[in-house]
Amino acid sequence: MNEKILVIGLGSILMQDEGIGVRAVEALESRYIIPDNIEIMDGGTSAMDLLQPLRNRKNVIIVDAINTGAEPGTTIRIENEDIPAFFQTKISNHQLALSDLLATLRLNHQDPENVVVLGLVPYHLENKLHLSEESIAKLNEMVEMILTELKLHGIELQLRDDPLPGFWEVRAEMEERQCA
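^ that's the sequence the OP posted. Answer follows.
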């Protein structure tokens, strides 16, 4: 299988662990060589802005902070029919907008063929640019979850010889130094 896969990180990097989706996708891109058949996107917090990028896609992986009522740090994987596309349950801080988006695409017969949402129940949602220590400790697990999804599509990424600095990672380090 060699189809193009869209990998989107959702979340507000301004709200500490709420940004885990963006930071996990950034870590993936910084550590691994991304082939042409994978598109990486920082989806931010407005899922409706993703209407065009998601339209008629075959495979989409969304990474986000997800509130399920489970213990903080719990990782979650849901796909296709299990994603509450018509507002049954609010599982993410962006779930409502993501649900609206998926419902709009479905009604127009333009929904992605396969959607997987990978998430982490956040530890802290404070007004801070950096992830909590607990979420930083889970970041590698989140990256591994993305790698596992890609392997299911027959794609194995190669590590970079020298990781690239992540934009948000650098900004968070700067904020932490200024606040110390």
